[in-house]
């Protein structure tokens, strides 16, 4: 009996030990579970926080999208309003033209970009002489770009029509180091000329820049020139400019010349010629020439611009702007026709006294009438031109203002100096003269 009681106690002890062990294991398991649960809860809270941040970010982005959409919508409305305004102004200009029985002589377009103060000066100069010929010469301002001051200035004048050229295409120059500005100007010129010739259907266009003043007889001069363009297809354009038009080199406001050199700075072109130039926008004379005056009908005051003030102080600032009101309608300009001008000019060159050697300016001073000086090549010409102070530069193989290689300018007020190229006399048909 005692033995059984002892065994029972051992058994009970084993059961107690087993129970305690089981409780300990259970407690350990519960602790691990509690830790895992706590970790899971923390992870869930982190996910919730991240979710809230993402939702907030999405909401903010949606708000930004709505704001941007509204901004785009407003800009589109503003652009549409501006387009409508421009179209309305163009329609007004076209309607004012169609009301006239007589076709315009030429459209006058002022090429502008970002110089509002220059543009205003140019417009005021044109309007000073424009009122009596408004129907013959409708005025346009063509702006390259979106400068708001230029646009506002152009739109403030009822006497003209505003056009805007927007070009965002990248520029690729043909040669390294070339100014991109000249390529952009060329694109603008092509666009404006296409607009005036093909959209508005003008027969002729006079091109000015936003840094020019005009002479009192500017419009009469170009009206007379329009007749020459129509009669003589060998004339490529009528120009109002003489590169050697400085005060000391000019005298006669009635005198006009033909030139193989394109003068630019105020010129008139006819539609058939633009039909040839527009597709490739390349200057191609095809043996044709330009009419230029002795005394300029435009004055360029643009010291600051795309050309960076090149030549301004020496050649542009001293230019003589004609101040004589020439009655071009009564002038007989038939001497400028191709077949007549060669002989007319040859006679002037032939009758001039030839000079040789050095000290040419001094020798010229000692001659009463016109003089003729022969140059051998470009270098020789530049040396002589430097002595007299005229433009030395050549372009496309010829000196500025040259006709058949001959450059003419005044010296000591009245006398003419003819700088004659090595082949000029032959080209002019002058024989037995050296």
From TrEMBL:
Keyword match Manganese: yes
Provide the catalytic activity annotation.
N(4)-(alpha-D-Man-(1->3)-[alpha-D-Man-(1->3)-[alpha-D-Man-(1->6)]-alpha-D-Man-(1->6)]-beta-D-Man-(1->4)-beta-D-GlcNAc-(1->4)-beta-D-GlcNAc)-L-asparaginyl-[protein] (N-glucan mannose isomer 5A1,2) + UDP-N-acetyl-alpha-D-glucosamine = N(4)-{beta-D-GlcNAc-(1->2)-alpha-D-Man-(1->3)-[alpha-D-Man-(1->3)-[alpha-D-Man-(1->6)]-alpha-D-Man-(1->6)]-beta-D-Man-(1->4)-beta-D-GlcNAc-(1->4)-beta-D-GlcNAc}-L-asparaginyl-[protein] + UDP + H(+)
Enzyme Commission number: 2.4.1.101
Query: Highest taxon of the source?
Result: Eukaryota
Q: What is its main location?
A: Golgi
Q: How does the record classify its membrane topology?
A: Single-pass type II membrane protein
Q: Does the keyword Cytoplasm apply?
A: no
**Segments passing through the bilayer:** 7-24
The entry's localization annotation reads: Golgi apparatus membrane
Q: In which pathway does it act?
A: Protein modification; protein glycosylation
For molecular function, the Gene Ontology terms on record are: alpha-1,3-mannosylglycoprotein 2-beta-N-acetylglucosaminyltransferase activity; manganese ion binding
Q: Which UniProt keywords apply?
A: Coiled coil, Glycosyltransferase, Golgi apparatus, Manganese, Membrane, Metal-binding, Signal-anchor, Transferase, Transmembrane, Transmembrane helix
A cellular-component GO term for this protein: Golgi membrane
What is this enzyme's class at the first EC digit? transferase
The record's comment on cofactor binding reads:
The cofactor is mostly bound to the substrate.
Q: Which InterPro entries does the record cross-reference, listed alphabetically?
A: Glyco_trans_13, Glycosyltransferase_13, Nucleotide-diphossugar_trans
Q: Which residues form the signal peptide?
A: none
- Residue ranges that the Swiss-Prot or TrEMBL entry lists as coiled coil: 58-92
**What cofactor does its activity depend on?**
Mn(2+)
Family named by the database record = Belongs to the glycosyltransferase 13 family.
What functional role does this protein have?
A: Initiates complex N-linked carbohydrate formation. Essential for the conversion of high-mannose to hybrid and complex N-glycans.
What is this protein called in UniProt?
Alpha-1,3-mannosyl-glycoprotein 2-beta-N-acetylglucosaminyltransferase
Please name the source species: Lactuca saligna (Willowleaf lettuce)
């Amino acid at each position: 009996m005692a033995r059984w009681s002892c065994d029972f106690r051992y058994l009970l002890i084993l059961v107690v030990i087993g129970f305690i062990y089981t409780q300990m294991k259970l407690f350990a398991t519960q602790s691990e579970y509690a830790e895992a649960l706590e970790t899971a809860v923390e992870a869930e809270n982190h996910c919730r926080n991240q979710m809230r941040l993402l939702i907030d970010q999405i909401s903010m982005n949606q708000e930004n999208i709505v704001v941007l959409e509204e901004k785009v919508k407003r800009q589109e409305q503003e652009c549409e309003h501006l387009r409508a305004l421009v179209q309305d102004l163009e329609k007004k200009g076209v309607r004012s033209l169609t009301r006239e029985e007589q076709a315009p002589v030429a459209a006058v377009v002022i090429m502008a970009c970002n110089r509002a103060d220059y543009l205003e000066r140019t417009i005021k100069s044109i309007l000073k002489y424009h009122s009596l010929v408004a129907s013959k010469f409708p005025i346009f301002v063509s702006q390259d770009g979106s400068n708001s001051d230029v646009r506002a200035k152009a739109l403030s004048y009822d006497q003209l029509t505003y056009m805007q050229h927007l070009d965002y295409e990248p520029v690729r120059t043909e040669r390294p180091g070339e100014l991109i500005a000249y390529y952009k100007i060329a694109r603008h010129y092509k666009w404006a000329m296409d607009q005036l010739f093909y959209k508005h259907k003008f027969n002729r266009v006079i091109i000015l820049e936003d840094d020019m003043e005009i002479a009192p007889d500017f419009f009469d001069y170009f009206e007379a020139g329009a007749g020459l363009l129509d009669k003589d297809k060998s004339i490529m354009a009528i120009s109002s400019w003489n590169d050697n038009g400085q005060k000391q080199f000019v005298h006669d406001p009635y005198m006009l010349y033909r030139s193989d050199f394109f003068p630019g700075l105020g010129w008139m072109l006819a539609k058939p010629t633009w039909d040839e130039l527009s597709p490739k926008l390349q200057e191609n004379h095809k043996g044709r020439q330009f009419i230029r005056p002795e005394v300029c009908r435009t004055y360029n005051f643009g010291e600051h611009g795309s050309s960076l003030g090149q030549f301004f102080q020496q050649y542009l600032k001293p230019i003589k702007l004609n101040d004589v009101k020439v009655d071009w309608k009564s002038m007989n300009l038939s001497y400028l026709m191709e077949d007549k001008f060669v002989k007319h000019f040859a006679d002037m060159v032939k009758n001039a006294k030839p000079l040789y050697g050095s000290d040419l300016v001094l020798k010229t001073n000692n001659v009463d009438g016109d003089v003729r000086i022969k140059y051998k090549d470009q270098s020789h010409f530049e040396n002589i031109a430097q002595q007299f102070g005229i433009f030395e530069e050549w372009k496309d193989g010829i000196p500025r203002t040259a006709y058949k290689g001959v450059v003419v300018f005044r010296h000591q007020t009245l006398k003419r100096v003819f700088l004659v190229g090595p082949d000029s006399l032959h080209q002019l048909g002058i024989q037995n003269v050296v």
